[in-house]
Amino acid sequence: MNSSSIFFSTDAKNVMMEVACESIGKCNTDQRSFKGYLSRWMAASIKVAPFVESWVMERLRASAQAAVSTCTAGFDGNQCGLQWTKQANDGMLGVGEQIAALEVVQSNLILNVAGPVSNSTGGTSKGNPAAGGDSGSSPITAPDITNADRAGAGILTTLVLVGMIGGAWWMASTSK
């Protein structure tokens, strides 16, 4: 968790930022949504490592408040910006910015949901080689290969090889 500290501002305390591009205004389409993914997985980490809860939630709350303060632009006055540390809309509007803002706000709800389950804690997922079919075997079956199949494959292979060799010979002989 300490390694992710690079993605949080010290000026706007604990507010998430995209260090690779945000300060210079050169974020590409993908980078504009990265804060959303970081928010989601930081929140999920609380469920599998509860000892990180206070550290993570402190940052998610600060980032969500900052993100929401940028949601004042666009045709409806509700579109969010990229630079949350400014806590005002920066005019950077796009799908990535909206995804990131939604994710950081939604991640603050992580304490209200149950964590992942396993087969010993309530999970019911079972393997099924029939992929949902009625039989216990795979529904995909191949017919037996006959001598006629082998003969056909041999003929086709011969035709392809003759075509390739003939084509190479023709190209070599016409390039002179």
Give a description of the structure:
This protein is mostly helical and 176 residues long. It has a domain at 2-112. 41% of the residues lie in helices and 0% in strands. The longest helix has 28 residues, at 147-174. It is flat, with a radius of gyration of 29 Å. The N and C termini lie far apart (67 Å).
What does the secondary structure layout of this molecule look like, with pairings?
Elements: H1 34-48, H2 53-68, H3 95-107, H4 147-174
Helix pairs in contact: 1-2, 1-3, 2-3
Can you give me a brief rundown of this structure?
The chain is mostly helical. It has a domain at 2-112.
Task: Give the DSSP E fraction (strand runs of 2 or more residues).
Answer: under 5%
Average of pLDDT = 89
Q: What global shape is seen?
A: flat
Radius of gyration: 29 Å
* SSE succession: HHHH
Structural class comes to mainly alpha
**Count of distinct strands:** 0
Helix proportion of residues, in percent?
A: 40-55%
Low-confidence stretches: none
Helix count, DSSP H or I runs of 4 or more residues: 4
Largest sheet: none
Distance between the termini: 67 Å
Structure keywords:
flat, mainly alpha, single chain, 176 residues
